[in-house]
């Protein structure tokens, strides 16, 4: 399956193993992944395993998640995704940008495009996103794309970062 989403400034296309170098650049950077539960990656092999799994998912007739590469002026600058629950009624958004591109609205632009894709193409009924409570930039992205604050909880990092606060935002499509 090959899906492209275009925004005013960005092209979103399937993330795949050909993106290994650019993904590894931001996925192994401690500052870039400070608030990401499953990152940073420790090696290029770890990044490759992730991309291999993502590439395989894009080959399925009905993927359970969609990971898009974010391209700006033909340069791969990050990724944005939607992961679906078992009955595909809910989607969880996520994004990461190379820190060199922070502060330009690219996360908002790409997350909004994937939110719209999930609602209108995948027909999900609820969109949600989570972030570390200290990651105010991500919380602002969630608000700008139309998600509302739902709850505050905790998240457990799998390394020395330990326990942290977590914010959950969501958007539900009302039944007519």
Commentary on this structure:
- This protein is α+β, with helices and mostly antiparallel strands and 176 residues long.
- It has a single domain, classed as Gcn5-related N-acetyltransferase (GNAT) (Aminopeptidase, 3-Layer(aba) Sandwich).
- Helix content is 27%, strand content 34%.
- It contains 4 helices and 8 strands.
- Strand 7 and strand 8 form a beta hairpin.
- Helix 1 packs across helix 2 and helix 3 crosses helix 4.
- It is globular and about 40 Å long.
Order of helices and strands: EEHHEEEHEHEE
Beta-strand percent range: 25-35%
Structural class: alpha+beta
| CATH fold type | Aminopeptidase
Radius of gyration: 15 Å
Q: Helical region count?
A: 4
Stretches where pLDDT is under 50 for at least 5 consecutive residues are none
Q: What global shape is seen?
A: globular
The total tally of domains equals 1
Fold topology:
Layout: E1 5-6, E2 10-14, H1 20-27, H2 44-58, E3 65-72, E4 75-84, E5 90-97, H3 106-120, E6 126-132, H4 136-144, E7 148-156, E8 163-172
Parallel strand pairs: 5-6
Antiparallel strand pairs: 1-2, 2-3, 3-4, 4-5, 6-8, 7-8
Helix pairs in contact: 1-2, 3-4
Summarize the structure.
With 176 residues, this protein is of the alpha+beta class.
């Amino acid at each position: 399956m090959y899906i492209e989403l275009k925004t005013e400034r960005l092209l979103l296309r399937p993330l795949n193993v050909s993106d290994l170098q650019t993904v590894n650049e931001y996925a192994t950077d401690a500052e870039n992944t400070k608030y990401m539960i499953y990152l940073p990656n420790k090696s290029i092999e770890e990044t490759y395993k992730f991309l291999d799994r993502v590439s395989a998912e894009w080959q399925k007739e009905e993927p359970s998640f969609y990971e898009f590469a974010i391209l700006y002026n033909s340069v791969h600058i990050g990724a944005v995704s939607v992961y679906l629950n078992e009955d595909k009624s809910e989607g969880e958004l996520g994004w990461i940008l190379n820190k060199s591109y922070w502060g330009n609205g690219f996360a908002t632009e790409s997350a909004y495009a994937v939110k719209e894709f999930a609602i209108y193409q995948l027909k999900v009924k609820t969109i949600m996103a989570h972030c570390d409570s200290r990651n105010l930039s991500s919380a602002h992205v969630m608000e700008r794309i139309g998600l509302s604050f739902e709850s505050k909880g905790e998240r457990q990092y799998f390394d020395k970062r330990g326990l942290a606060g977590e914010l959950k935002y969501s958007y539900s499509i009302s039944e007519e």
